[in-house]
Amino acid sequence: MIHFDHVSKEYRDNGNGVTLALDDISLGIERGEFASIVGHSGAGKTTLLKMLFAEEAPSTGTVYFEERDVHTLPEKEIPTLRRRIGTVFQDFKLLPGKTAYENIAFAMEAAGRTDAEIAADVPQALELVDLEDKIWNFPHQLSGGERQRVAIARAIINQPDLLIADEPTGNLDPINTQDIVNILRKINELGTTILLTTHNKGVIDSLGKRVITMDEGKIARDDTKGRYVL
Ligand code: ADP
Description:
alpha/beta; binds adenosine-5'-diphosphate; 6-stranded mixed β-sheet
């Protein structure tokens, strides 16, 4: 589904220095996988993820998403690519003036879905994250864990092929963290490919799934049923 073929990325800062953020990465992720990427800050995790939705381009090498070279896609196909990838971040990124329902509905409107589809799908998505009783709450009326569950419902509402969860539990306590992990696992079991980055050893060890360890822009380890080793 995803294939990085000898991908390197250099960042140049105002003519001063050059940072090699990705150093000859070759990597494949199959449809239906649940893979975690771990590594110290600066290891290149974010850069790797940005390549997938064409937010950054490789300096050399090629990134394929479903056989298509992401960085030679015509400009008008980029929004379609991005709609196939749901994203969840540490800081939730919910719209503060909108309810849980409206935050999710907004993502469906942007994808051109009808009012009837929205009315049918939003409650189902909130049920999947076990939050149907908070449907009319605004973000400030939700706990951190609940906000992240709304963000996950929003990320999957348009049935993406891939869900990228970038440090989704970074702001949560252990109980909420475990809830989020269980929800991600459930979404994966329903068929969505998941790419997770985390610094949380407990999350990685409880998942028992593939772990890709990055270090200084390289893949230092790639273990099928990995544990957190840094
Ligand atoms: P991680 O997500 O693992 O913390 P990043 O991919 O954010 O790592 O960063 C990898 C390296 O690239 C770091 O050394 C970082 O400072 C550098 N870097 C990231 N983004 C930029 C940028 N826009 N300009 C210059 N350097 C960058």
